Amino acid sequence: PILMKKFIRGIFLFTVAVLFIAIIADIAISKGLRCTERGHFYTMNALMNQKMNADVIILGNSRAACSYHPSILDSILGINSRNLGVSGQPFGISYLRWQLYRRNNIPPILLIINMDYGELNMVTNGFEKQQYYPYISDTLVKPYLDLYGFTWMEKHIPMYRYRGDHKLISIGLMELLHIRHDTKGEYIKGYSNKDWLWDGEKLETVLQNGKVKDQCNLKVVALLDGLLAEADKVGTKVIFVYAPLINKLKENLDEQTSLDAYHNLADKYHVPILDFTQMWICSDTSYFHDANHVNAKGAEIFTKELAFSIDSLGIFQK
Question: CB-based contacts of 280: which residues, under 8 Å, 6+ apart?
Answer without folding.
Answer: none
